[in-house]
Amino acid sequence: MTSFRMKRPLFSGLAALAVSVTTSSAWADPQDYQFQLVQTEVKVGDGAIVAVRLIDKKSGKAVPDAVIFAKRIDMAPDGMEMMASPIEQVSSTEPGVYRFKTKLSMEGGWRLSLGAKVQGETGTVEDKLVLKAVP
Q1: Cα 32 from chain centre
Q2: 3-state secondary structure the chain
Q3: For residues 103-130, b (16+ Cβ closer than 10 Å) or e, as one string?
Q4: What is the pTM of this model?
Q5: Looking at domain 27-134, which CATH architecture does it have?
Q6: Per-domain residue ranges for the chain?
Q7: Is beta strand 97-104 parallel, antiparallel or unpaired with respect to 87-90?
Q8: Taking the CB of the first residue and of the last residue of the chain, which one, N or C, has fewer CB atoms within 10 A?
Q9: What tens digit of pLDDT does each residue of 88-116 get?
Q10: pLDDT digits (tens, 9 = 90+) for 41-71
Q11: CA dihedral 89, 91, 94, 99 (to 10 degrees)
């Protein structure tokens, strides 16, 4: 009987610890973040710069040091999803602002799709933004 009485509080304590670790590690959700275009209109041409800001929706603050691992730009808003352009991330001097260099070959609607990891968070932040290429 003694060993059963000792194991029961130990098991209860371990179960409580497991629950607290599980709930405390989930501080934020990927839906707590969103990308926003710095400018909704960008000039047509090779070397066009598209800038976005990653925002923590709970605090309203910009989120620096995210790792952008997926990026695509295409003309899906104008019904031409297959018309995609190469895109590369370039440096930014403003924390929480991420800049991309691309070729906007024609006027119209362009969709920027991004996937990112926020430091210290689990899950992936994904967003699709629509901008307009202008002359």
Answers
A1: 10
A2: CHHHHHHHHHHHHHHHHHHHHHHHCCCCCHHHEEEEECCCEEECEEEEEEEEEEEECCCCCECCCCEEEEEEEEEHHHCEEEEEECEEEECCCCCCEEEEEEEECCCEEEEEEEEEECCCCCCCEEEEEEEEEEC
A3: ebeeebebbbbbebbbeebeeebebebe
A4: 0.77
A5: Sandwich (2.60)
A6: 27-134
A7: antiparallel
A8: N
A9: 999 999 999 999 999 999 999 999 999 99
A10: 999 999 999 999 999 999 999 999 999 999 9
A11: -30
Cα distances (angstroms) measured from residue 6 to each of 19, 23, 33, 127: 21, 27, 46, 52
Other beta carbons within 10 angstroms of residue 57's beta carbon come to 12
Q: Token pair of 55, please?
A: 């925002």
Give the pair of three-digit tokens for residue 24. 């405390």
Placement of tokens 């991004």 in the chain: 114
